[in-house]
Structure formats: structure tokens, C-alpha cells
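We give the chain.
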Amino acid sequence: MSKVKTISAIQKPTDPIEKRKLDNASPAEEADIRGVGSKETENYDTPDLILTSNEKVIRKGNASIKLGKDRNSNRLSGTGGKGQSHCAAIDIVAGTLGHSARSRDRKGNKLYADPNFVLDSARIYVSQKADIDGYFRLKKPKGAGSTSSVTPRSSIALKADNIRVIGRENIRLITRTDSINSQGGELSNADKSGYGIDLIAMNDPEDLQPMVKGENLKDCLNAMLQVIENVSTILDNFISYQQSFNRSVQNHTHMSPFYGTETAPDFKQVMSAGIENMINVTLNCQVPMIADIPLSNVAIVNDYLDNSGVAGDKYILSLYNRTN
């Protein structure tokens, strides 16, 4: 079994200047430097941020809120880096460069950091116009709904090791509230899946399938159970008729002209029972099997399972929402 590398709860600085400061500090001074003492936390062993002329940042320790234009990396990245307009952005980060953060390199040179949507520990990113799927390296499902450098959209993204969305009452994920998107594009009904909700685990959209609508599925299963019950009734009828005929054949007797001894079968009794059996089986078994059950199956398929045309209200699959 491979060993898991753990990180100390109190991370030691790699910056030699900061390390020397800690080594020479008293316990009380060290507590203040690390942010567990009575004084304000010092910014130790954290890289400085690379800022453009149109960005403003509020920063304390390795937490920052940056206002500016959309960019996910260096100054030339994003819609802001490409010189586009209407691309304002707010970048909230806790832990720039994550576990790799340090203030100086091995030669003692000061380090500076651009946004890093892979290494930064936790981020809330709000952009007026962004390729949000591309920024976070998200694999894109087939169909509409994904962003690209050609089709950026206003976006909000949250990324961290763990994310919790907590509602004391309820949580609702709602799409398609407007008929025009943030770029002025009209939202048509040509592809409804583009307006749905995709639940994708492991960043693997290859096997996305429509979610099942529970009430419709329940109705579908009940209808199928009714068909099965009808088949059981028909089969039970057939068995009863056949057993009745079999008993008649089994118990019939024939009188011989020679001293009253039994001889050949009684064709009159057998023939009568056989004709009655044929009528019962035809009317109560064959006709329902040929007519009623296929029609019931076709109705189930059309109501619940078929989406070849316009899906009805009872179609069991969601037209919008998918999961893997």
C-alpha cells in the first residue's frame, strides 16, 4: 500500500529570512508570527501577487480579494488579457499556490504569483465574461451548455478540496430564468439539454445520461405490473380450462356391446369437452394475448419510454438534467 504524504498542521516557512526570524523568536513572538498569538498575523512565506494596472487587491496573509478584468493566469490570459471589453472580474482566493506557496526561491529571490486555477487552495471566481470550463480544465459534455474561448459567458465558479452548500430550509438549483444571456444572445428551445443541470463525478462527462423522473417511473412500473397481472390471469384461465378437459379425457368410459365391458373411448363426451375447451381458450386466452397485451405494451412504450417525437408528460427521463 502506498504511503500518503501528510502536511503538518503548522507549516514551516521555506524562505530563509522568514525561517531565521522564527528560529530567533521567543515562543510568544513565534505565536504572533504564525497568527495564533495576540497580535495580527504576519504575512510570512507567501508569494506577492502579480497585478496589472487595472487591478485592485485587498490582501491579508495569503488571502486576497482582487477586482479587475477577467484573467485566469498571466496578464495576457482570459478575456481581459485579450483586450476585450465588458469582462469585469472578482477573484477571491484563500491560499495562493496552495501547499507550494513560498515567498522566495532557493537563491533568496522574491517570488511573485499569477492566478493559478489548479494550485490555489480555495477560490470563488466571478466574471462578466469567461471561458470558465477552460480555466478550470473541465471536460466538456457533448451538446450545448459549455464555454470556450469563442463562446465565453458570465460565470461564477467555486473550487476547493471540499465544498458544502447548506440550506436550513431548502436548496434549489434553477436554470433558464431569462430569454437572453449576458452576452445578449437569445436562448432558444432548440436544445433543452443546454439549459439543464449536469452532475458529473470524476470530471468524466462521457457517460452522461438523463435523470429519471420518479413519479413517471412509478406510473410506468405500475402499468407494467398491471400487464403482468393480466398475463397471469390469462395463463391461469388457460390452465383451468386445460385441466378441466384433461379430467374429462382421463375419467371418461365406454361400454362394449360384449357383456358390458369397457372398450373404445367415448367420443361424444370427449368431443363435447374438447369443443368447450377450445372455445374457452380462444375467447379468454388467445384473444387477450393477441389483442390486449400488445396494445398495452405499445401504450406503455409511447407514454413512458419513447422520445422519438415530442415527449409526452409521462416520459420517464428528464429532458434537461443529466448525471453519470
In short: Confidence is low (pLDDT under 50) at residues 1-11.
